[in-house]
Specification:
Shape: globular
Strand order of the largest sheet: 1-2-3-4-6-5-7-8-9-10
Keywords: Aromatic hydrocarbons catabolism, Hydrolase, Signal
Largest sheet: 10 strands, mixed
Organism: Paraburkholderia humisilvae
CATH class of one domain: Alpha Beta
Number of helices: 18
CATH architecture of one domain: 3-Layer(aba) Sandwich
Family: Belongs to the peptidase S33 family.
Protein name: Epoxide hydrolase N-terminal domain-containing protein
Order of helices and strands: HEEHHHEEEHEHEHEHHHHHHHHEHEHH
Number of strands: 10
GO molecular function, one term: epoxide hydrolase activity
């Protein structure tokens, strides 16, 4: 006797059809929606040279924005958390409030206009289209600088530092502090192409950035980065291309190997640490114990995150949650979304629209999963002492994953030309404190101008 119900029979029929399609190489028949939505216009050269510097302008069709709002409004919501705090993740009330504004009050076109106010380009490097913003200073002898964003960020993170770095005299700094800025989108992020083969991790990206800088006309330049951008910058420094004159990082890789070993084993704090080192150890211990879930998932099983491509709310909650609720380093994001400080942490200059601009960029470009794969492609420990010899400037912001002690930083960066611990700012320093961040970059790299 069969125990089949109509539902179970239909379910087995669908699974069987899917398996047959896969076996026959007909995966495309299961592709119900476009995976590569059009988001902009590229001016292609007459000769078809994809390695040329091709002008790019963002233009998202209205239909994509209508579809995004429809999906937000049609979200199937879970029950609220069973605790009175954020210890189980992004609270339902928080995401409901964000969703309502996202679907009814948020205007992507303002961000699109801001993007298009900067010169943007696409160029193919090592078979992959790379998007970048390139803003030249009017000041003579400006230093070329490539600035790399992280996750869950994008080039949108850098908007508020562009003019202070390119046009320093408007902000009380001398013309001699000016920079020419190149701000690329990481592979698989934003308007850069999504890799279709393995290998696009920090090492390959660091090499690609050298090609990019030389292609736009700079044979000597500095590099800056935070979060994943800091990892790419550190690796570029280890590779030590002759064109690289120095680096500035606000996510330093400075933790000694013996400290990392102790943290991984869950050991008590080692004896003999200074007060500064003890503070860093406590921050790292909390991070390792309960704040790395998102990174483990993306580093091991990024393809499983299908919800990031199907649901704007799944994407938003994933990008907002760093496993720390209203603590650092994501406190600024939470404060911006909620519109008030959380646990004493301010959003600084970061606004709710800034956060939604960034999340919406991920949604419109369908890069939630491809961005996650960058973690899978990253094989170096993000915290392990960098061991680099090129001139390095380090800004250790208090709201970072850990505030690197100078003692550790000097061991990791053998030619440390600048070290400072700003009084405010966190993991998203360029967003949170753009004026402080810009001053850190100017001051940190100033000695390289000679």
């Amino acid at each position: 006797m069969s125990n089949d119900t109509p539902q179970s029979s239909s379910r087995r029929h669908f699974v069987g059809m899917a398996a047959a399609a896969l076996a026959a190489g007909s995966l495309s028949r299961l592709a119900f929606a476009e995976t590569s939505p059009a988001t902009g216009n590229i001016t292609e050269p007459a000769n078809g040279d994809r390695t040329a510097i091709r002008p790019f302008r963002v233009h998202v069709p209205d239909a994509q924005l209508v579809d995004m709002r429809r999906r937000i409004k049609n979200t199937r919501w879970p029950d609220r958390e069973t605790v009175p705090d954020e210890s189980q993740g992004i609270q339902l009330a928080t995401i409901l409030g964000l969703a309502h504004y996202w679907a009814t009050g948020y205007d992507w076109r303002k961000c699109e206009a801001r993007l298009n106010s900067y010169p943007q380009f696409i160029t193919e490097i090592d078979g992959l289209d790379i998007h970048f913003i390139h803003v030249r200073s009017k000041h003579e002898n400006a230093m070329p600088l490539i600035v790399t964003h992280g996750w869950p960020g994008s080039v949108i993170e850098q908007f508020k530092i562009i003019d202070p770095l390119v046009n320093p005299t408007a902000y009380g700094a001398p013309a001699s502090d000016a920079f020419h800025l190149v701000i690329p989108s990481l592979p698989g992020y934003g308007f850069s192409a999504r890799p279709t083969t393995t290998g696009w991790g920090p090492e390959r990206t660091a090499r690609a950035w050298v090609v990019l800088m030389k292609r736009v006309g700079y044979d000597r330049f500095a590099s800056q980065g935070g979060d994943l951008g800091g990892i790419v910058t550190n690796i570029m420094a280890k590779q030590a291309p002759p064109e690289l004159i120095g680096i500035h990082v606000n996510f330093p890789a400075a933790v000694p190997a013996e400290i990392l070993k102790s943290l991984a084993a869950g050991d008590p704090m080692p004896a003999g640490l200074s007060d500064e080192e003890k503070h860093a150890y406590e921050q790292l211990s909390a991070n390792f114990k309960k704040k790395r879930g998102y990174a483990f998932e993306m580093g091991t099983r990024p393809q499983t995150l299908y919800g990031l491509a199907d649901s704007p709310i799944a994407l938003a909650s994933w990008l907002l949650d760093h496993g720390d609720g209203y603590g650092q380093p994501a406190a600024a994001l939470s404060a911006a979304v909620l519109g008030h400080p959380v646990n004493g942490h301010s959003a600084g200059a970061l606004t709710r629209d800034d956060v939604l601009d960034d999340i919406t960029l991920y949604w419109l470009t369908n890069t939630g999963v491809s961005a996650a794969r960058f973690y899978w492609e990253s094989h170096a420990n993000f915290f392990l002492a960098a061991d680099v010899n090129v001139p390095a400037a380090v800004s250790a912001f208090p709201g970072e994953n850990y505030q690197a002690p100078k003692s550790w930083t000097e061991r990791a960066y053998h030619n440390l030309i600048y070290f400072n611990k700003p009084e405010t700012g966190g993991h998203f320093a360029a967003w949170e404190e753009p004026m402080i961040f810009a001053n850190e970059v100017r001051t940190g790299l100033r000695s390289l101008r000679a």
